[in-house]
Design a protein that fits this description.
This protein has 171 residues and is of the alpha+beta class. Helices cover 18% and strands 42% of the residues. The chain has a six-stranded antiparallel β-sheet. The chain has a three-stranded mixed β-sheet with strand order 2-7-6, covered by helices on one side. The radius of gyration is 16 Å and the shape is globular. The two termini are 28 Å apart.
Length: 171
């Protein structure tokens, strides 16, 4: 099944106290797009994958057998990272499909690494990301960005609206 999703929102402080400026996300997505379309002989060819929950939440590194989504397209629209991909028909991928068909819509959470600085705003500390390398977008129960999540699940020939399309979400 084909998915569309919002991966992350720019210029807002998320639930982890982190902010990803638009120019940082734009640069990270441009770099990622370059490598998504390379062949193995051209350099750093890669797949952009998503697991069921973050690898760090499961006590370790990414695990191929935990992969449930292959993200085929990634774009930055100036405000959000937009993803398109396919749920893989693994045992865990079929579990995700069953959850989606049952009306359970997971959040999306970005996985990556980079650099940041701590800035103070309104008496609070905010981690401002200054450089980013994106390594994945995982399906999670409670993501840090309230705007990130699956926006469309496509059946074989017809689109099946998700809960997010049917009702307003708190922002």
């Amino acid at each position: 099944r084909h998915l569309r999703a919002v991966g992350i929102t720019a210029d807002v402080v998320n639930g982890n106290g982190r902010r990803y400026p638009a120019h940082v996300l734009d640069a990270a997505v441009q770099d990622l797009r370059t490598h998504l379309h390379e062949s193995a002989g051209q350099g750093r060819a890669m797949l952009l994958l998503g697991e069921a929950e973050h690898p760090s939440d499961k006590g370790g590194h990414p695990n191929l057998l935990e992969t449930v989504v292959r993200w085929d397209q990634v774009a930055f629209d100036g405000a959000q990272v937009i993803l398109e991909g396919t749920v893989l028909e693994t045992s865990k991928g079929r579990d995700i499909l069953a959850l989606l068909e049952g009306g359970v819509t997971p959040d999306i959470s970005q996985r990556g690494y980079g650099t940041s600085v701590i800035v103070k705003e309104d008496g609070k500390q905010v981690e401002e990301v200054t450089a980013l390398t994106i390594t994945g977008y995982d399906l999670v129960v409670d993501g840090a960005d309230p705007n990130a999540g699956i926006t469309m699940v496509e059946a074989t020939a017809e689109a099946v609206p998700t809960i997010q399309e049917q009702e307003e979400r708190p922002m």
